[in-house]
Each structure stands twice: as structure tokens, then as C-alpha cells.
Amino acid sequence: MPENNTTETPYTALGFYHKISQLRADTWNALKRDLGILIRLEEENRVKNLVKSIEIKLTRLEIIEDYHAFPSKEDFRHLWTLFQRGEYTMLDKVVRRLVRALISESYRRRNVDLSETDAGAEDMENRDALNQLRRGHPASNSSAQPYFELLVVDNLSNQEEEVVREAFHNMRRPEDRFVYDVVTVKSFEDALIAILVNPNIQACLIRYEFPYKSKYNLSALRNYLEGLSENELANHSEAERNILLSSMIHELRPEIDQFLVTSGDVEATASRDIKHFNRIFYRETDYIEQHHTILRAIDNRYRTPFFDALREYSKKPTGVFHAMPISRGKSVTRSHWAGHMIDFYGINIFLAETSATSGGLDSLLQPYGPIKKAQEYAARAFGARSSFFVTNGTSTANKIVVQALIKPRDIVLVDRDCHKSHHYGMVLAGAHVSYLDSYPLNDYSMYGAVPLREIKKTLLAYKRSGQLHKVKMLLLTNCTFDGIVYNVRRVMEECLAIKPDLIFLWDEAWFAFAGFNPTYRPRTAMNAARTLRNRYRSEEYREEYAAWKAEFDQLDPEDEATWLDQRLMPDPDKVRIRTYATHSTHKTLTSLRQGSMIHIWDQDYRQKVESAFHEAYMTHTSTSPNYQIVASLDVGRMQAEMEGFELVHSQVETALSLREQLYTHPLLQKYFRVLKNSDMVPAAYRESEVESFYDPVTGWNKMEEAWARDEFVVDPTRITIAIGNTGVDGDTFKNEYLMNKYGIQINKTSRNTVLFMTNIGTTRGSIAYLLDVLLKLAKEFDYQLEDSSRPERTIIENQVHSLNHDLPPLPDFSRFHDAFRPSTETSQGDIRCAYFLSYDEENTEYLRFDNGKLQAQMRDGRDVVSASFVIPYPPGFPVLVPGQVISEEIIHFLQALDVTEIHGYRPELGLVVFTEEALINPAAG
Q1: What is each CA distance from 35 to 264, 554, 768, in whole angstroms?
Q2: How far is 552 from 556, CA to CA, in rounded Å?
Q3: What are the Cα distances from residue 723, in Å, to 758, 805, 897?
């Protein structure tokens, strides 16, 4: 077998980790193609070149397959033997069979013996491939045992590896709920790379002693192994090394069940900090006990308490003498006219439709059984202390959290361009709102996110005015619709240094998937809360804080720069971690429409919030929630725990493939420019100085660096494309070109951009179709330009210039009118007072800005004050809120908009504003 050439290509060194599954599939297919050509060739020079190409592909695949159970190491030795003997015809047959097994995933359902290459074996593989195509039908795989792989970390010889693998194979029984295979690795580094490149690994058995270094140059690990060295690891005892590896595995993939096999003092080991191990085995423990323990752990994640209960309920013969004629399908099965509803949906959805909370089911409003258990599992999956299901969307989830935490006149710092539900939540709660401005991206008519400096500056203003105690919450969107992601941990840490009990509400409606990827996870609210809580409890942090505080105390505390120009650290004796996150589960994970969750990591929840939270939950939750949505949230959580890592990784891969083509294709670049990290995050917020995650030579190898260090980063699965060069605005491009012509659906546009999002359901075929459509459109724009007359060309050029250059600056939040400002020293406004003042028509009037009437009033010195929310789509955030003074910049922006949908604005009447009399004494109104 040839030596592994670790310097041959970046691929061999796994530098292209982000696209490893695509690399794996493409290399196997290329190997199959080369072998097919080779066995038909006679020309010696071409044969020699192909043989070399095949050797390179086998070498590359051997590294990747070292971390997978199928094909096994023994299978690969068989491939090398055939290659070295020159038995290319037989090698071709074996590789074809292997590729079919990988494509059909038949290795998940039965043992695949690559030495069997007869027609019968080939027919079986073809049947497996056909079944794979039929997987959309539940009957095709409902009875199959789910498959996973067990990682065994131990420095074993080839023969010992086969003994271990065979021992676990012999434990398998037909009645087992799951079936699994074994992957063995020999080193600390190999264990980490295995869990990164092999999503099938669901359990890990760490055994005995093993070296630190891998035999491969694993560049994909460089960010995860920072600060570790072989010499440092050599100074650790066996137990310490095992615990360190376990901790790193948990950080990368917390869902993996871990077990320790030790030959040392098992009782002493058990008394150490081994929180990430499910169980410790002594070396004499037999394989059957390990086998059943592993299966039990997998089953604990695989359970779907409410979905299982609902399925059981649907099988019961029940007499319904209650509401809902559609329950059990009675009103449609007996209908002469509505039977096509059952034809479309199937009977099960009706059998499971009920308003019952007994008979094995549960109440969402006051859960005690399977819903309670399902929510506990959700908290485990998303790293929360408590989680709650919401069946009417994240808009409602946001209002629940705000109502539970905010009392009238509490000050809340709010991202001004957040979702409208937050603004309405402020109205309902009676909050005094202090709006924060995001940095603008004027060239693309969109906002980024709120700089940390802006947040700190606002908090310090409240501190100087003696009102910091009134500030209750900071509310931010992570990630934004356009994919801007905060450094959540840093925001929380520095804000807590100013106000140690500040509550954080992170709207992660578009970020529910992020907890299942090691690069994304650290920038999620729940992970940051847990990390900071553990950090502040450690002695290491106390020492670090004492040193920082001693240096900080030497500076002038009255100088704002003292607080703004350095990284702040909170006092560990005062800080309280109080964090809430809302997820639109249905947007980025598996759930029916409006399925959302609330996740809580609040040290004071039990003492201060629980009662109010349940009241708020009761206020906004229907007494007749849709059980299908609840069940889908339960299943979605299970899927995220079992295969979220694989699905999210695939989502990222497809996004990177799309970006790569758009970055490099000349014709696509002419009309469609993908916005890079540097386009959407100004240099001031990019400490890493990474401008793009992609480099044509080294591939996608800069993403982790930016995500680890920068204040803001761009989620690569959200691809914003500037289309100004087409001469077509975003709304027209979305509707007339993408949807009407090609059936491609997108959501977000700006005047000169469109946003494409990949998700866990996006396939490589979908990406190929999108690229084909964009190429067709690019050619269409080329033809249009070539065939146009001089006047037509001038029109197109003017449209292009307008979309690329005639873009009005995005307006900042102006200010609340003094009538709605509780304090002249600070910026917060009483949005509730303004909102309800507009209910009396005599307090409002309409002014049009298209005829200059409103502007004339402003020139005469009048403060014209909005009496409603004004929300254009796009961009979809309030340009005006009740009580806000209308500025010239806002009017200029509204005049430049070319969208047809503006909520709160009636073109024939104008903007609704407060009369001057209403502003004299608004409280009386």
C-alpha cells in the first residue's frame, strides 16, 4: 500500500473540510469513471496517466474512509491489493458495487461484502437504490432499524481493530431497535477529525492509552487544537487525557453519547469531573453490557414522547362527544363532497386531530405528560435550562417573553430594525423603548447589526443619568434576515460589566439550526449563556478579573473612552446570566408552519420569572393548540439531535458550492455579484481582517478564523446577490424572473439585491437548477443588451446606474417627540402612550409627502410626529413608529422606495400623524 502523501493537495490534508462529503462522493464517482475508461484503453501513455490518477484518488479516499465504518479498512486493503496486482477489471466491479452501496445507503440496512461481485449482488444493490428513491413514501423505510456508527478510540493494531469490530458485530440482534457499525481510530487528533467528517458517529467509546498526533496533516483541526501540543498531552495522566478528549468532543458535537473504558482505578476515575461521559466501564466489563448501554443512550435521544403518544391515540377507537366534527375524520369520511381532502392529506392526520388532553395526550398550557417530556428533551437538545413549544409562530414567542419580563415603564434597548413583533410587544408591555441603530449598508439598501460600541454607549448614558436601574433588557436579532451574526458572548460579557443583571432576548428566528454545527454554535444565545456561567464560576476567571480590574481602576472612570475603548469584564460576584432565545423552528429545522420554541437560560427564572412567564404564556397561547404542530416540533428536535450535524453540514456545503460557482463563473459575475464578508461587515468590525471565506487556491479555510474573532460575521448559507447590473430591481427580479418564469421562490429582496437561503432540505440538485436558471437569465440580459437600439441601451444603462448608484442613505432613528419622552437626558420613548393616543381619530390627521404638504409643515417649524408604524416591504422593518418625529432623511428614503407594499401608509391619504393639539397633553388623550 502506498504511503499517504499528506502534502499532495489541500484535499488530501482535509483542508477542504467544509465540503468533505461532496469531496468524498465526487472522488468515488471520478474513480469509477477513470476505471471504466482504463479497462477500455489500449494506448500505453494514456493508461499510465490514468493509473496514476486512480492511485491519487485511492490515496485521497483512504484518508477520508479511515474515519468511516463503510467501506472498512479491510475493504480498502482489498482495493489496494487489486490495484497493485493490476486487476483493473475486478477493481472496477468492486468500486462500482461500493459506489452503489454508498448511493443507495444499503450498508445501513445489511452487510455489504465487496468480494461478492456477481449479478445477484448487483441486482440487490439496484433494488436498494430504487428503495432509496422511494423514501418519500413512509412504507419504504418505516420498519428499518436506524443506523449509526460507534467510534472507538484506542491505539490498536489492524488485527486488534478487527477483533473489536467483530466483537460488537456479534452483539447485534434482530430485535435491537438500532443497528450500528464500528469506526476505530488510533489517536487524539484522529478522534476529533472523525467526529467532524463522519456524521454517522452517534456514540464514542474512549479506551486506554493513545497518542496525540495523527499520521495525517489534519489542517481542518488547527482552530480546534489551538493551545494544545503533543508535549503538553504527554504530561497528562491517562484519565486527564481521556477527560480532555471527551470535553473537546462535547464542544464539537454535544449530542454524541460518550463512554469511557479504563484500565485504571475505575472508582477514582468516576469521582473526577467526567460530566460528559454517560458511563464508565472497567476493562473487564463484557461487550454485551457496553452494547446495551450504547443502544439505551441512543434510544434516549431517538424518543419522541408526544409524537409517539399522538400516534398511539390515533389507533384507539374513540367516541367523540365534544367539539371538532373533523376529529377522527368523521365529518369528511361521511361526506359526499369533501372526500378529496382525505385523498390529499391521508387519514392519519384526521385520526390524530383532537382537542383531548387525556387518554395518553397532554395539555400544552399546563403539561404534565408527553408534552412536558418533549419540552425537556428540547431543552437538552438546544442547551437550554427550559424550553417551551409555541404553535402560533415566533411573533407570539417574542411577545410572550417580553410580557413575562417587562413591566410598564421598564427601559428596553431594542434593535430598531428588528421584527415588527418586538415593536408591538413593546406596546403591549408598556415599555419605554430606547432604539439602537444598526450600521447601514447604503450601497445595498439594507442594515447590518448594532455595533457593541453603540450598545455600551447607550448603557453608559443611562448610568450617567442615574437611570441604569430602570434598564431591564437588551433585545437583538441574531442572525439578521440578511445573515449578519453577532459575537453573542462578547456582547453579553461587556454589557454585563456595565449592568450585571441585564436580561438578553436574542431573536434567533432564522438561527435555530446553528446549535448543531461546531462553527455556528458558539455564536448562539444558549451556548454563550452556558459558557459564560461556567467561566464566571471558575477560579481562573477570578484571577483574570482581578488583574483586569486592577489595571482598569488606574484609568479615569468618568472618561467615556475608558469604557468604550477596551474590552470589559463583569464582576463574578455580581453578574447574573439571564438569557432568552426565540426560534422559528419551522424556518430552519423540521416543523410544520408556525412551529416555534422559546429557550431559557436564566439564573433567576425560578425565583423571579416563572409565574409571570406562565401567565404570559397563557395569555398568548390558544386553548386549542394544533397537536400536529406540537408533534412536528417533537420530531424536529429528535431529528436535530440525531442528524442535525449532518444536515447542517450539508446545508453549508450546498451554500459554499453555490457561492464558489458565483465567485468564479465569468458570465454569472457579470450580472450577479455575491456579497462577501467584507461587503456586509465593515473593516472596523472584522478583527480577523478576513474579507472572504473563500480563496481559489486554498478553498474554504478562513471561516473559523473570522467566526472565532470578529464582532460580526456573515452566515454563508444566506447568499445575498447584488443584481444592479441587470437593470432590474429586486422586487421585479423576484416575482417576474425567478417565480413566474422558473418557479424559484425567495423571500427577501432590497432595491438592488436578492437573498437566496439554503436549508437542511436543500440538495445539490437544487443548487444545480438555480445555477442553470441564473445562467439562462445572464444570457437573456446579454441578448437584450446586444439586440437593443441606442435609445433602449440608454434606458438600460440608466436603470443600471440608478440601481447601483442612486440609492438614498438609510435613515437612522430620529427621536421620540418630547411629549412621549419620560426623560430629556436619555432617548427612550413611551411607545404605548403614542400607540393608543392614535385610537381617537380627533388626535390624528393625514399628511401627504408626495405633494409636498408634509414637507411644507416641517419647513414651517412643526415637529411632524408619526401616529402609526410605517413598515415598507422590503426592507420589512419600521421606518417610523408611533411617537417618532419624522425627519427629512426618512421622507427622502420613503420617496425613493419603489415597493408597492408599505404597511401603515395609504398613498391616497398620506402618513397618519398626530395633530399639534394632541401633543400638548398626550397623557390626557
Answers
A1: 50, 72, 26
A2: 8
A3: 19, 12, 17
Q: For 478-563, list the strands marked E by DSSP.
A: 484-486, 503-507
Could you tell me which of 437, 476, 523 has the C-alpha nearest to residue 710? 523
Q: Which sequence spans correspond to the domains of the chain? A: 20-124, 147-302, 375-639, 643-805, 818-919
Note the CATH architecture for domain 375-639. Answer: 3-Layer(aba) Sandwich (3.40)
Q: For residue range 613-641, list pLDDT tens digits in order.
A: 999 999 999 988 999 999 999 999 999 99
Residue-wise DSSP of 872-894: EETT-S-SB-TTBBP-HHHHHHH
Half-sphere exposure of residue 594: CA atoms within 13 angstroms, side-chain side = 13
d(CA 663, CA 654) in angstroms, rounded, equals 14
- One-letter amino acid at 743 equals G
In terms of DSSP H, where are the helices of 789-865? 790-805, 831-837, 853-859
User: How much is the pLDDT for 9?
Assistant: 38
Q: What CATH architecture applies to the domain 147-302? A: 3-Layer(aba) Sandwich (3.40)
Please report, for residues 109, 508, 713, the alpha-carbon distance to residue 96 in angstroms, rounded to integers and kept in the order given.
Answer: 19, 44, 42
515-545 pLDDT, tens digit each: 999 999 999 999 999 999 999 999 999 999 9
pLDDT, tens digit, 9 for 90 and up, residues 150-208? 999 999 998 999 999 999 999 989 899 999 999 999 999 899 989 998 999 999 999 87
| pLDDT tens-digit readout, 691-704 | 988 877 767 778 88
Confidence of residue 11 (pLDDT cuts 50, 70, 90): very low
Helix (H, G, I), strand (E, B) or coil at 838: coil
**What CA–CA distance (Å, rounded) separates 697 from 207?**
39
Residue 333 pLDDT class (50, 70, 90 cuts): confident
Which amino acid makes up residue 152?
A: V
Residue 920 DSSP symbol: T
Q: Cell numbers of 757, please?
A: 437561503
DSSP string, 210-279: --S--SS--GGGTTTTTT--HHHHHTS-HHHHHHHHHHHHHHH-TTSEEEEEESS-HHHHHTSS-TTEEE
Helix (H) or strand (E) holding 862: none
Does residue 875 have a cis peptide bond before it, meaning omega lies within 30 degrees of 0?
yes
Q: What is the pLDDT of residue 683?
A: 95
Check whether 668 has a pLDDT greater than 70: yes
Question: Given the C-alpha cell 439602537, which residue does it identify?
Answer: 436
Dump the DSSP string for 657-698: HHHHHHHH-HHHHHH-EE--HHHHS-GGG-TT----S-BTTT
Helices (H) and strands (E) in the chain, counts: 36, 25
Name which of 179, 157, 151 is nearest 261 in CA terms: 151
Kindly report the backbone phi and psi dihedral angles of residue 471, in degrees, each rounded to the nearest multiple of 5, phi listed first: -75, 120
User: How many C-beta atoms surround the C-beta of residue 143 within 10 A?
Assistant: 6
- HEC profile for 388-416? EEECCHHHHHHHHHHHHHCCCCCEEEEEC
How far apart are alpha carbons 628 and 624 in whole angstroms?
Answer: 12
Hey, which residues does 436 pair with through a beta bridge?
Answer: 415
| Amino acid making up residue 160 | E
Q: Which pLDDT tens digit goes with each residue over 281-295?
A: 887 678 999 999 999
Q: Could you check whether the bond before residue 874 is cis, i.e. omega within 30 degrees of 0?
A: yes
Cα gap 136→138, rounded to integer Å: 6
Check pLDDT > 80 for residue 81. yes
- What CATH number matches the domain at 643-805, 3.40.30, 3.30.390, 3.90.1150, 3.30.365? 3.90.1150
Mean pLDDT of 133-154: 70
Say if CB 182 and CB 68 are below 8 A apart. Answer: no
Q: Which helix (H) or strand (E) holds 722?
A: strand 718-722
Superfamily, domain 818-919:
Orn/Lys/Arg decarboxylase, C-terminal domain (3.90.100.10)
